[in-house]
Predict the 3D structure of the following.
Amino acid sequence: MNLGWYLRRLSKMSPAEVNGRMRDAWTKRRWRRRQVRPGAVDPLKLCGRNIAPFASGLADFDRAQVPAAVTARILRTADAALEGRFRFFDREWQDLSADPDWFLDPRTGKHAPQADYAFDIDHRNAERSGTVKYVWEPSRHHQLTVVAAAYYLTEDARYAEFAAAQLRSWMRENPFLSGVHWTSGIEIGIRLISWVWVRRLLASWPEVAALFDDNPDFRRQLHHHQEYLARLRSHGSSANNHVIAEEAGQFAACCAFPFFPESHDWRNHAAAALRREARLQTFESGLNKELATSYHILVLELLLAAAVEGEASGHPLGSDFWHRICAMTDALAAIIDMRGRPPRQGDGDQGRGLVLDDPDANPCTSLLASGAAFFGGCDWWPAEAVKPDLRTLLWRHLAGRKMPSGPRPAAIPNLFADAGMTLLRDKTGTADEIWCRCDHGPHGFLSIAAHAHSDALSVELRCGGVELLVDPGTYTYQGEAAWRRYFRSTIAHNCLELDGTDQSVSGGPFLWLKAARSELITASGLESGPEAVWCATHDGYCRLSPKALHQRTVRLARGTGKIVIEDLVRSAGKHDCRLAFHFGPEVDCYLDGGVAQLSWDADGRRRRATMRLPEALAWEAVTGQAEPPLGWYSPCFGGKIPITTLVGTGVAASGARFITELRIDLREKEPVATDTVAATLAPQG
């Protein structure tokens, strides 16, 4: 990073954070002499015996409870892992053998540093470290928890031996403070949770103690991981999901592996931090304050993993902690569509806290199953989205009881006022379900709002779970600056852009210098009635000359399939403007002047809609434009595909109103032709 970035980043730090980072820098400087280089002997001396033994807690679990389909899916995933194949992000790794290359970025072919002192490595520099998330992800060891789950279900020694070989390989190739895998606390925290569960699931394997409890290499690595988290915690403007991952890993490891004299104090500090952060990082409505749905899922998994570990070990995190988990689960149940998919809001990197199943399985259904097991589902929960899996069954068994839930919504919430999310719905749970998310929330969490996008007043629209108007997703974090800027930009969302600028001012790939502030004006008819209405405004363009205020109103006329979006600009002068609408990858779009004809397949039928666009703007359809980027959708981290984007260009004078009317045809749908179905199902190149 250049000096300018450091100065901008410093401007977002409080004096207390600056002092804390100076202490961290001093620790890193002093630790340089403690680096263990690859191939060298780790000099760490530990006490000869564990303070307490490991207890798996699963000895009396009845494996017959696991649905056959769940077992088959886990074994299929684990068998692929034995062949070196496991999916992370947008691709399936092909060479995760028993002794893989832990430093290879398969996306670029680059190798991240292995022997360098960890804190000399700039893991954000793609030229030096590759696309670092691709390097890091296998070292979270989710593939090992899945393989260990396969052993637990079958007691087939092949799975245990593979997990043991990979774990030994990782410990050998990644000694303390050498290489890129020691540069980030979140990676260390999630890795600790995986180690706890690999040990638990391999409990009946005859060699498990030699791999873990009695293994000096493992004990040293465990101590190093925990000391790292105890001394180099995320804090200040970086205390987002990272600090929860760090403390959840620390707490789980201390509960499951109370091997060291420091374990008691480490556990108590982590418990206090988790209780504090669960409260600070969650709105009262239950949504995560980063307002990035992927991180809501990650944080909920991490909090559950820690809470269960506390219950199983006799160190419960308390009723208030479980109340927060329940609120987050209810919020998740409320915001998903009829396909069980949540909104696409803010950054998303598919981060997971604990994986015991196919990594492509929908995490929302698993989390709702866990919520139902611990608290019971509300009457309004989508029953079809609650699908028990192995993780849910084992979590419930370890905890041993139902949990206190606190007050819960009597009906499905449609307005999350504190989080700035409003849902307009019609025909909920049916094949004609209309689901529309409107955004009037805070820009992001903490002073840098690291995972926010410049998307104030954006909308997402789905019909029967098919994405019509889409959020673009994330695509990348490092290494492709132009693409990072695009996927976070205002024009990449269903928004109005003025004077070619974003609503909020970016200072770097995870740094916002000035944030648009949104305000809800009205939300009515959300529960019932002929029309649901949302109206909000944002001040992101008040920094322009002359100042401009953008107000948006969305109306859903129930029973008609009609959605009207009205954009109003208040300003003393004129501004160039662009209004963008991005269609999902399943939608075909034909633009004829100011009218767009939309069509898509659903349930073997062809669906249609008509979109009448503001006549005051000149409209064009853009698909997969590279320079500058426009017309792209990221289905998962690391992946991007072209989509159709309609862009209306013109001038917004004082009081300008742009009215867009979309009408979904709710009449009997025409069957899809056989050749169309075949083309839809055919593998895509």
